[in-house]
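User: Structure tokens for both sequences below?

Assistant:
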Amino acid sequence: MAGRRCGAAPESSEDEWMRRALIVVVAAGVLLAGAAPAAPPEYPVTFIKVDELRVLLDRGTKADIIDVRNWDAYVDSHIHGARSMPLRAVPDRAPEISKTGLVVFY
């Protein structure tokens, strides 16, 4: 009776088969998840810190600064010159985003 919980009904062979199949599917998914390389971004992606952005802006660098938080967070506080574009809206509003120059999402 090893493997049975006390008071539990015995597993049918179909239940055992389903459990093993599920384990195989999950294991295969985990193994294959890292197998496909991610597509490179169309545009270079660089992460910068707030202080680095401040230096760039102080030097006169033009930047399209986009606040992807919700509207309430934007209204509460945002980077001067930033515009609100909630993250879920970015794909639909992509044509509004600068195709040249510095674009900052936060």
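Moving on to the next sequence.
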Amino acid sequence: MSLYTIDELKQKIRTLDEKIETAQSQVSFNGRSVSYQVAELTKQRDRYQTMLDEQLAQSGQRTKQHRIKYARFI
């Protein structure tokens, strides 16, 4: 029994992707706090993606590898 359904996880990942895109457009305005925010959102997205992959593997569905292109701030 998992915390979220497959559809809920997909929705959460989509929402985080949108937040990451929005945060990146604000980088020039306030670079330091936004880069921290993007890093945190990216970690959260990775956790949801791992949960989704595990659920898809358990249900026998094939996992679709989806790579998002965005900058990582150091």
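User: Anything stand out in the second?

Assistant: The chain has one domain: 6-59.
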